[in-house]
Specification:
Distance between the termini of chain A: 51 Å
Radius of gyration of chain A: 24 Å
Keywords (chains A, B): Aminotransferase, DNA-binding, Pyridoxal phosphate, Transcription, Transcription regulation, Transferase
Family (chains A, B): In the C-terminal section; belongs to the class-I pyridoxal-phosphate-dependent aminotransferase family.
Pfam families (chains A, B): Aminotran_1_2, GntR
Oligomer: homodimer
Largest sheet of chain A: 8 strands, mixed
Number of domains of chain A: 3
Number of helices of chain A: 16
Number of strands of chain A: 16
Organism (chains A, B): Anaerobranca californiensis DSM 14826
CATH class of the largest domain in chain A: Alpha Beta
Protein name (chains A, B): DNA-binding transcriptional regulator, MocR family, contains an aminotransferase domain
Chain lengths: 462, 462
């Protein structure tokens, strides 16, 4: 922590001088995002000042939006322009650094990542494999991991040989290799509407025409879907049957089966994106489409970003035999292979049976946060504002009266230190009165306050 | 190592029974590729047998191609079908498991990866950043790493702000995002010929037409290039000025400057792929095109796979201002972001000033292996066989007389446990009498034998 050493000039108060110094370290990038600042006691000792000086300095940095604190967990450098959220949701919130209540990011909370366990496994892999852990890996994935994944998938009733299981560098890469394999200029693709904007962008960038089919509480609108199927001949339809992003809706069994029937009748492929199936807070678990897919019409992607850790960039893809080789080739030409080192470590994690334990732990946490947010919404939001009541996932989808724009709400909320994700980009036919609230990054107790604040802003807009 | 425990039935000799058991563990995938088997002493103790039993068992497994030994370094499970090579060079060598002399793979040798150092840094990052190390990262890359890379690039005379430096998931992803950004169906792309097949495949898969311009010892053929430029209007030309893959040729300063002039005159972009500039065994260091690029015509990719460790999947891309945002967007839609955990660790590696030390170490090793292979080629190969005399990189490019096919040589060599990479796929206008010999995976002493063997096969074919 030598970078914190300064010679006080005595021209300003010590806490001010130290604050300027740390600000400079942050702006210059010398302290990375989310860097944990030294504890108050340690830094006070190091600089030989009263701990109160450090307390004042850190508080002041926090007020100015350079750092954030985790109660009992220390002080951290904030991400520049809150970029972590930007990346994920493509929403510009750069107008402020000073977000106290992050309801925008649906990234899982880093506080619940199994860091210690994973660290031990990283070391175990390096002890075992040495340099080979850092060599090229097969582009379809590290064989033992594919076998572990085969066994994991049986828990979701998906029975498939590891020959059809591909390790990919995150769910987004799955969409990319599928687009590369199946799409050519002018092809049609159907998606749910609203839909994850990263998917729409990926399909469009291959020159495909994307048609949105409305999603309802129990699944995609099958009547409209069949009507559109009579007009167009889509290469595939992209769906998230479990806690769809952004709505949080869950397909019932009827919608699942009917969608598979339609795929057979109209000969299209279904791309099933499973980010959230593990975060199911209800008692009923429905089989993924892939588990019901007797005709090999489903390409299945399971991401480990939302339930586990996004920084690993790990997901799996299950290919129908017909597309198995082309998808592998597309993956190979995308990035050769996914990091073998991270694959080996994740393999060990699965083999040691740690997966379910982790899932159960985070499920409980997020379930409580979800309930806490839902009840705050019930209490504070005016009745003209509708919101989903998801039984899984990491966020709630909110619909304002049509006369209101979510963007306006976002602007005012940001000034009060609250970030939300507006819905505009999730629509192909743009709608401006929707927004998404995520409950991943606030504790149960913290959730009430920003919801109350949002409610009061909305009431003021009405 | 409980998986090695067996109850001997007594029906066969103990070493045979153990061998069957381990074979089963390997085939079933219970032992991953490159898994280090227990030491002879340890396993003998564990199973309460004579060490000779283990020695015989391991030797027999090696003869059958299930394991390989590193002299003084233990016994390892072989990669299934030698897939590591397949991924990289797309050559099917699955006809044998029993490769004693790997001259095909130009992957760097895992024996020289700085595993211990890197392990310490991985732990340091996790101590410092905790769960945040595993969160989403900005899609352009972890800011402190981009700043470290900015400083690293000045050593190559490339002066560019970190705003134009993107962290990407390996060099291949660089080609992919460039293709996504610049190419549409029917566009023309020029490459050197012969050329890395992964590049040709990536450009073709966007519907581009790839035209090969011959590469000579001092760089791309400028006369033919200009002739073709008058006929076509390529979106970009893809080149490797430093130790081109597969030829190992090095552009001289004239060729570098002239290429930049042509780019200006005919308005095309240059994609400069730097895999090998660090592995320069000569005394002269030429500036990369990007360092001479006053007109912002060059997109520069620097891979850390060949010189450092491929399993990290890390490379950097320098974008001209015009393409800065579109390239970042294409990266984002490819895999959101490169693993933040690995980025943070590599950043620490650079900040601790370990890069040059590593480069100097491996450079010396590979330089000696290069010399050793060149002198073996001089001694043994008939004079009708031509080969490059590279002053850098990891392999030598060999030209057989036109009546001979490299594929035939490959077949016979494989039977003798020698793998080579044939040149066919490196050509757009297919030629069949070229092959590539890599010297990464054999020690100086080991190189003579397989070269002598290859020479004798070639002489037999003449």
């Amino acid at each position: 922590m030598d970078e914190f050493l300064i010679k006080f000039s005595g021209k300003k108060s010590k806490y001010k001088e130290l604050q300027e110094h740390i600000k400079h370290l942050i702006i210059s990038g010398a302290l990375p995002h989310h860097y944990k600042l030294p504890s108050i006691r340690k830094l006070a000792n190091k600089l030989d000042v009263n701990p109160v000086t450090i307390v004042n300095c850190y508080k002041s940095l926090e007020r100015e939006g350079y750092v954030y604190t985790i109660s009992g967990g220390g002080t951290y450098v904030i991400a520049d322009n809150n970029l972590t959220n930007l990346n994920e949701d493509f929403i510009d919130q750069s107008s402020t650094h000073n977000i106290k209540y992050d309801l925008a990011s649906s990234s899982p909370s880093p506080l619940f990542f199994p860091v210690k366990t994973f660290k031990n496994l990283l070391n175990e892999v390096l002890e075992r494999d040495g340099g080979f852990a850092f060599n090229y890996q097969e582009s379809e994935g590290y064989l033992p991991l594919r076998q572990s994944l085969q066994s994991l998938l049986t828990e979701y009733k998906i029975k498939v040989s590891h020959h059809y299981i591909h390790v990919i560098t995150g769910g987004q890469q799955g969409l990319d290799v599928i687009a590369k394999t199946l799409l050519q200029e002018g092809d049609y693709v159907f998606t749910e509407e609203p839909c994850y904007p990263g998917a729409i962008a990926t399909f469009s960038s291959r020159g495909a025409k994307v048609i949105g089919i409305p999603i309802r509480e129990k699944g995609i609108d099958l009547v409209i879907l069949e009507k559109e199927l009579k007009k167009y001949n889509p290469k595939f339809i992209y769906v998230m049957p479990d806690f769809q992003s952004p709505t949080g809706y869950l397909y019932d069994l009827t919608h699942r089966k009917k969608l598979l029937e339609l795929a057979n009748k109209y000969s299209f492929t279904i791309v099933e994106d499973d980010h959230f199936a593990d975060l199911n807070y209800s008692q009923t678990k429905l089989p993924p489409l892939k588990a019901l897919d007797i005709n090999d019409n489903v390409i299945y992607i399971k991401s480990f970003s939302k339930v586990f850790m996004p920084g690993l960039r790990l997901a799996l893809l299950v290919a129908p035999p017909l597309f198995n080789e082309p998808l592998q080739e597309a993956k190979q030409f995308s990035d050769i292979s996914t990091s073998g080192f991270l694959q080996r470590t994740f393999d060990l994690y699965l083999r040691k049976g740690l997966w379910n334990e982790h899932v159960n732990k985070v499920k409980l946490i997020y379930q409580r946060r979800c309930q806490s947010m839902l009840s705050a919404l019930e209490r504070h939001f005016p009745s003209c504002v509708k919101f989903s009541k998801p039984q899984g996932g990491l966020s709630i989808w909110v619909q304002l009266p049509e006369i209101l724009k979510a963007k306006e709400l976002q602007k005012v909320a940001l000034k009060k230190g609250i970030s939300i994700t507006i819905g505009d980009d999730f629509f192909i036919q743009r709608k401006e009165n929707f927004f998404r609230l995520s409950f991943t990054n606030l504790s149960e107790k913290e959730i009430e306050k920003p919801i109350k604040e949002l409610a009061s802003i909305i009431k003021g807009m009405l």
